[in-house]
Amino acid sequence: MEISSMMPITSSTMDTYEASKAKELTKSFNEVLKDTTQKVQAQGQRQEELRDACRDFEAYFLYTMFKEMDKTVMKSDLIPEGQAETMFQDMMYNEISKEASQGMGTGLGKMMYEQLSRTYNQFDK
Fold it and tell me: Alpha-carbon distance 94 to 88, whole Å?
């Protein structure tokens, strides 16, 4: 093997090599950063979906509670109840339960969210 035919290592060759390595590392860093950002955004979206589901469950629970409470009220035969009145009461209980579950609500949705997010985060790891 003849050494004279080999390309001599010069400072410009080393600079080119180091520049290509730096470019490769920057590219891989940017890819990792992009992947991490996407994962964080997806996790934030999942957390928001979980919060919405807990809030919806709280609203459904309150709706069911209002319906059962209404059954305990004594009905009078003086004014007969019609189909429209029953439908209106259902819609009213539905809206009241949605409003009651917004903001602070009863705290049921918040407790569920905290518990489920802890459990959910254990499975993400």
Answer: 10
